[in-house]
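Hi V.,

You were right to ask for the full record rather than a summary. Here it is.
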Amino acid sequence: AMVDFQKGERQMNMDYALCEALKYNMKGINRVLTFYDINCQYNKHFRERVDRNMYLEVDEQICIIPGIGLWHIHGHQDCCYVRYASSFIEGAGRIDGEIMETLWLPLN
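Predicted structure:
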């Protein structure tokens, strides 16, 4: 899912996009890998924000594995690299998590 921010990076926009994406074609899928430039902060209280919002829902059985794209991770604290870089996430394979940034030029 992709989000256009009205003002800054507001978590409610991301919460809505992620919740909607997790409703689509998820039969039999119980683990998802998400990439977001600030996933180290965003993911901390995601479930709590969803639980407090009557318009959002995520199946409790879905395990969300947060990642940060390999280009953005280097701007974070050292502890974020080992925890959120796709190189260290089991099952992530070889992905940089930066696909949208590579498409900006041709799409704009």
